[in-house]
């Protein structure tokens, strides 16, 4: 199973505020951006279930930067889709949809945006929307994954 994650306001605080993982020494050298508390636990659990972990962001952060940011926390990513990759893959259709997980064989996309959830309903892809205040988001994501048909 392939699971993708949005970055801004889902795993990295921006407009939304939530607790973040404690920083490690290496991390300070790579970035000032921090990951949401629970990210490490969740991604470890996904690895144990043989899930692939993708980042799907409409930001212009470079894939190399994103890869290093997660590696500094000890997390290996399978694929990074930024705005450039999204636009290239969808070519003509890229402007009409903010995210299209099925184009990258993603089974479940995790995001903070209700708009992405609406696109999922309209275009038939699965989403899990993380609420800003959801302290149980890790177990809620894992429950959702368990409920998916294989
Ligand atoms: Mg977002």
Automatic annotation (TrEMBL):
Domain of life: Bacteria
Record-given protein name: Uncharacterized protein
Organism annotation: Chitinophaga ginsengisoli
């Amino acid at each position: 199973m392939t699971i993708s994650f949005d970055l801004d306001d889902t795993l990295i605080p921006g407009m939304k505020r939530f607790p973040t993982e404690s920083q490690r020494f290496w991390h300070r050298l790579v970035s000032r951006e921090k990951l949401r508390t629970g990210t490490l636990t969740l991604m470890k659990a996904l690895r144990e279930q043989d899930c692939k972990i993708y980042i799907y962001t409409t930001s212009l952060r470079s894939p190399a930067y994103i890869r290093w940011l997660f590696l500094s926390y000890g997390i290996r990513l399978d694929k990074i889709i930024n705005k450039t990759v999204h636009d290239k893959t969808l070519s003509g259709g890229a402007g009409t949809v903010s995210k299209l997980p099925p184009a990258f064989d993603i089974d479940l996309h995790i995001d903070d945006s209700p708009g992405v959830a609406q696109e999922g309903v309209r275009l038939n892809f699965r989403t899990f929307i993380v609420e800003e205040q959801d302290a149980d988001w890790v177990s809620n994501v894992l429950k959702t994954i368990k409920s998916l048909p294989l």
